[in-house]
Amino acid sequence: MKVYLIADTHFNHANIATYCDRPPDFSERILKNLRQVLTPEDTLIHIGDVYIGKKPPYLCDWPGRKILVRGNHDQHHSCTWWMEKGGFDFACDAMEFRGHVLTHEPLNPENINFVTPQMGAFNIHGHLHNIWHGFHANGGEKENESWRTQRLRFAWQLLFAIEYTNYMPVEFEKFTSHPDRYQARGPRARTQS
Questions:
Q1: Per the domain annotation, does 189 fall within a domain?
Q2: Most buried residue among 71, 89, 120, 165 by CB atoms closer than 10 A?
Q3: Calpha distance 126→175 (Å, rounded)
Q4: Secondary structure element (H or E) that encloses residue 177, with its range
Q5: Going residue by residue through the chain (193 aa), what tens digit of pLDDT does each one get?
């Protein structure tokens, strides 16, 4: 049995392709990768923002057990709904797994009252997408700057961005032992065309 991570699939969200410079067929790529990588014995932890709008018919139509850490776009349904009707075996708003804290949005150290990351532990989160490179030019660059500043301050936070994993789930242990392989190296200058 292997445990995989994925985040911010945003199925049915046409604008995410523009905001995050995703290819037009990103949904198909994600689904193909999930079906090819996962086996019935595996577990997938989705750290939020499964879909936008109408529930897609292919939701959770991939092998293995599925756990959801709800994201901001998933909160229109309760955790119980996600387990009874959304296709997940378990749903929650945050969880500790193998000593790491999994959340959708990065934890704010000033507001942590339920958990303190232990030495060597990470807060693994999604939500920020390909923030190091900034969202699309028409998509709120000013707001992104504050997230970049926060990312520079808190090295124990690891961003899981599907844009940096070639739209693939990643084995949990591979991600935690070599997170630099699945993340941008830091901010880069944007080129003008």
A1: no
A2: 71
A3: 13
A4: helix 172-177
A5: 999 999 999 998 988 888 888 999 999 999 999 999 999 999 999 999 999 989 999 999 999 999 999 999 999 999 999 999 999 999 999 999 998 999 999 887 665 554 555 566 888 999 988 865 554 444 444 444 554 444 444 677 888 999 999 999 999 999 999 888 887 544 443 333 3
d(CA 183, CA 166): 11
Question: Are the beta carbons of 53 and 11 closer than 8 angstroms?
Answer: no
Per the structure, the complete domain to which residue 160 belongs is given by: 3-182
DSSP codes, 27-94: HHHHHHHHHHH--TT-EEEE-S--BSSSPPTTTT-SSSEEEEE--TTTTTS-HHHHHHTS--SEEES-
Q: What is the CATH number of the domain that holds 87?
A: 3.60.21.10
Report the C-alpha gap between 95 and 101 in whole angstroms.
6
Beta bridge partners of 65: 43
Q: How many domains does the chain have?
A: 1
Give the C-alpha separation, 43 to 113, whole Å.
29
Distance CA 132, CA 128 (A): 9
pTM of the prediction?
A: 0.84
Nearest to 95 by CA among 124, 129, 64, 63: 124
pLDDT value of position 181: 84
